[in-house]
Design goal:
mainly alpha; 92% helix; 0% strand; rod-shaped
């Protein structure tokens, strides 16, 4: 499980605990953790695509 998925899972758990206990701060922290996981996932995807494009260009030069 990647860091982005872990952030999302941790955030979802925090959010649910916050909702059940009525703790708005914990609920909000969970939402922030989920957003952080989503952003990390976007960065990972962009990085993977950039590396693929780089590798493709290297292979075209040969």
């Amino acid at each position: 499980m990647g860091e982005s998925a872990m952030d999302k899972a941790k955030g979802k758990a925090k959010e649910m605990v916050g909702k059940v206990t009525g703790d708005k701060r914990t609920e909000t922290e969970g939402q922030v953790d989920q957003a952080k996981g989503s952003m990390r996932e976007v960065v990972e995807n962009v990085r993977a695509k950039a590396e693929g494009a780089r590798d493709s260009l290297k292979n075209d030069d040969k």
